[in-house]
Amino acid sequence: MTTLASPPPLEIGPAIAADVAEIAELLQAAARWIETWRGRLWDPDLLGEAFVAPVVARGEFLVARADGAIAGVAIVEPEDPLFWPDRPPGEAGYLHKLAVSRDYAGRGVSGALIEASAARAAGWGRDLLRLDCHPDLARVYEGFGFRRIDQREVAHPQSGRIIVARMERRLRP
User: Fold this and answer.
1) Under CATH, what is the fold of the domain 11-132?
2) What is this structure's pTM?
3) Fewer CB atoms < 10 Å away: N or C end of the chain?
4) What are the tens digits of pLDDT across the range 26-52?
């Protein structure tokens, strides 16, 4: 029998400059962990402080804090022309780089960050929350209320040509 740990009390809000190093460490650890079970999804070398700092400065990183530590992170952006060039501006918020510390895995942090991201996008007056993911992960996001829109090849500036599943979740009825 497996006993799941109870969800920790979480505080979710925008990252601050003092969080940059901890966010970079969390993202790099998540990238290395993903490689152990499915191969490279994110390049850890591209997820350092130089990547994190400008996103934090723009106010686009959300952090979930538990027990005084960052338990998880997500980027929420108002536009995504790289993965969604065919969609008009202003209709969705875009979720990227959702990552949870292994210490908090399976304890509701992902769901809490997705809900906070949805609330942020709705606060911008958006009707949808969108994301792109490896096609193998689409089922995970379907469990959070997203539906698969399509699958497409994208020319990513750092990763080269990649195949992604594009997903969206309606925020208003």
Assistant:
1) Aminopeptidase (3.40.630)
2) 0.90
3) N
4) 999 988 887 776 666 778 788 889 999
